[in-house]
Amino acid sequence: MIILGIETSCDESAASIIKFDKRRGHLFVLANIISSQIDIHKKYGGVIPEVAAREHVGQIIPVIDTALKKANLNYKKIDYIAVTKGPGLITSLLSGVETARSLAFAWEKPIIEVNHIAGHIYANFIDNYKQIKYPALILTVSGGHTNLILMDKDFKLKIIGETLDDAAGEAYDKAAKMLGLGYPGGPLIAKQAQIYSEQINKEGESNIFLPRPMLNDKTFNFSFSGLKTALLYKLQKDKNWRKRIPEYCFKFQEAVNSVLIKKTITAATKYQVKSVLLSGGVSANLDLREKLEKAVKGMSEKTKFFCPQLQYTTDNAAMIATAGLFLALKGKTKNFSQIKADPNWDLH
Ligand code: KG4
Ligand code: ZN
Question: What are the boundaries of each domain within the chain?
Fold first, then answer.
C-alpha cells in the first residue's frame, strides 16, 4: 500500500510518500519533503496567514513532484492521498485540501482526511508501531496545542488535559521574542539553555526563579501564559538581563519541562499505561526528551517511552501519511467531492 501525504496546516508545505507492506508489517518512508517558510515569517516574528497561504500555493505542487521523484515513483502507484483537514490556519489548510482534491480527481484516487494532532501522535508509529502497546498516553506539545491524550486502541483517542491559555510552543516563541532571540523560539531558547547548562558547574546555581503553573493542581490541564508574564516582569526588573540570556532561557525551559513531565507521569501512573509517547514540534526539545524518558523509565519496567525521530517532530507529511495509513486500514476513505478543510476540527 502506497500513500501520498500532504501537510499545509501552518507554515510548512510538505509532501511524503510511505509504503506499507501489510504481510510483513513493514512501514517505509520513501520520501519526506518539506519546504519551510520560516525565513519569510522570521521577519515578522510569527506566521502571517495570508503570506503563508500564498507561499503554499506556489510550493505544494513542486514539493509533491520532488517527493514522487525522490521515491522514484509514478503517481499511478499511489493507492491513497492523505491530507491534513485541520486544525490549522484556514487559508493554509485550503491550499493542501484543494491540491489533494484536484489530484484525487485527476488521478482517480481515494482521499483520507487526517487530523493534524493525530498526525503528530502517529509520527511515533513511523518507526515503532509494532512496539507501542495500549493503553498509551501521549503528550502532544506544539505551537498550537498542548494536550495529554489517552489512547485505548488505534484511533481511540481521548483528551484528558489541555492548555487553558498558551500552548507550550507558543510560550517558547513568545519568551524568545521578549529575549530578542527571533522566531521560531523553541530551538533558539533550547540552544541558549544548553550554553548555560555547560557553564552551570562553574557559576553555581542561578538565583532566577520562574513559577511552574498548575504543577500541583488535581487536573491534567496546563497554563503557560502566567509563566510568560513572570519572565517579562523579571526582565523589566533586571538591568543586566541581556548579559544573562542563556541563564533566563535555561530557567524558562526548566519551568516548562518540569510541568510537562510531572503531569505526564502523574497521568501515566493514574491510567496505568503501557506506553508514553511524546509528539509535536516541542518534542524536538532534547532536554524534554531526555528527562521524560528518564522519568518513564523510573515508573516501572513495563511502561515504555517513545518519541519520533527529530525529522518527524515538527510539521511534516510523513506523519500525515502514517495516520492516513491507519485510517485507510479501517476503510475511512472519501472521494474528492466529499472533503473539506476545517480549521477547528476536533481530535476524535
Ligand atoms: O508541531 P509544530 O511544527 O507546529 C505546530 O503544529 O504548531 O510546532 C512548532 C513549535 C514552535 O512553537 C517551535 O518553537 C517549537 O515547536 N519547537 C521547539 C523546539 N523545536 C521546535 N520548542 C522547544 N524546543 C525545541 N527544540
Ligand atoms: Zn504541528
Answer: 2-123+312-338, 134-307
Closest CA to 144 of 43, 36, 280: 280
CB-based contacts of 228, cutoff 8 Å, min separation 6: 166, 171, 174, 175, 178
Instruction: Round to whole Å and give the CA distance between 142 and 122.
Output: 14
Q: What is the 339 CA–ligand 2 centroid distance (Å)?
A: 21
Amino acid at 67: A
For residue 311, give the DSSP letter.
G
* Residue 296 near residue 276 (C-beta atoms within 8 A): yes
- 230-251: per-residue pLDDT in tens? 999 999 999 999 999 999 999 9
Give pLDDT tens digits for 276-323. 999 999 999 999 999 999 999 999 889 999 999 999 999 999 999 999
Choosing from 7, 140, 166, 172 the residue with most ligand 1 atoms within 8 A of its CB, the one to mutate for a pocket test is 172
If you measure from the C-alpha of residue 328 to the centroid of ligand 1, how many angstroms do you get, rounded to a whole number?
A: 28
CATH 3.30.420.40 fits 134-307, yes or no: yes
Please say whether the beta carbons of 49 and 71 come within 8 A: no
| 2-123+312-338 carries CATH number 3.20.20.70 | no
Q: Is the CB of 284 under 6 A from ligand 1?
A: yes
What is the total residue count of the chain? 348
Cell 512501514 -> residue: 27
CB 162 within 8 A of CB 146: yes
Q: Cα(331) to centroid of ligand 1, in Å? A: 32
